[in-house]
Amino acid sequence: MRLPIYYVDAFSNSLFSGNPAAVIFSDLNNRKVMQNIAAENNLSETAFINFRDNKYFIRWFAPECEIDLCGHATLASAHVFFNYINKDAHIFEVHSKKNGALKVFKEEQALFLDFPTDKLISSSKHDEVFNSLELFPIDLYEGRDDLLAIFKSESDIKNLNLNIEAIKKIDKRGLIATAPGEDCDFVSRCFFPSTGVIEDPVTGSAHTTLIPYWSKKLNKTKLIAKQLSQRGGILYCEHKSERVLIGGNSVLYMKGEIFI
């Protein structure tokens, strides 16, 4: 079996920044093989897109497990679709197992994810966050997948002291740390060691949690966000009630084939 594979840097307009994802358009539907490929790629996510019944279906795999929702790999998949699968298209719609239909659309030079808004509930796991980051949050919420910890300043986010084993013990996919930005609306860092990814470079799905919080907090629907990982990334965000738009650029790094 020979499978075409693309590596795309998502949420970036230049190589070696943003969040890299692998993208594979094929009829492959063997979970074990897909997981082995994701582990071999050793990127935060590998997206598999299957076309059947006149629809595209997407699955996302981290190195150690399947993921329910991934923004940057969906954005990367749309980059491949628009540039190599259907150059005349302006909307890329995929269907996921747990989050239904997801859309990506072109707007000028950027691509925008159209994702469901996360629902937040207040959390009392402050001690777990302190054990993980050596800093108490000023507020704390639980979203669909992650724990959302609010801190006072961008400096707090930059200078977190990670305890990876403590983060693994949190009964969620991972931990999002966020604060007001100095030259943007808000900043964040995202940690998912239970999936094999200690710190994700730029996390689209986390912004389904971040956007509704900051939109309400700042009383605005359009926001600019930065993720303060080593690679870094910029996201253009909009809160639209039950949906959020998450925009960014993307760049192809590599195109090749897998031999199985």
CATH class of the largest domain: Alpha Beta
Pick out the low-confidence regions: none
| E-strand count | 18
H and E string: EEHEEEHEEEEHEEHHEEEHEEEE
Bin the helical content. Answer: 10-25%
Q: Strand content of the residues, in percent?
A: 35-45%
Main structural class:
alpha+beta
Give the biggest sheet: 18 strands, mixed
How many domains would you count in the coordinates? 2
The overall pLDDT, averaged over residues, is 96
Distance between the termini: 5 Å
Please name the fourth-level CATH homologous superfamily of the largest domain. Answer: Diaminopimelate Epimerase, Chain A, domain 1
CATH architecture label of the largest domain: Roll
Task: Chart the SSEs and their pairings.
Elements: E1 2-10, E2 19-25, H1 31-41, E3 46-52, E4 55-61, E5 66-67, H2 71-85, E6 91-96, E7 100-107, E8 110-116, E9 121-122, H3 126-133, E10 139-142, E11 146-150, H4 154-158, H5 164-169, E12 174-180, E13 186-192, E14 197-200, H6 207-218, E15 222-227, E16 233-240, E17 243-248, E18 250-259
Parallel strand pairs: 2-3, 4-6, 11-12, 13-15
Antiparallel strand pairs: 1-2, 1-18, 3-4, 4-5, 6-7, 7-8, 8-17, 9-10, 10-11, 12-13, 13-14, 15-16, 16-17
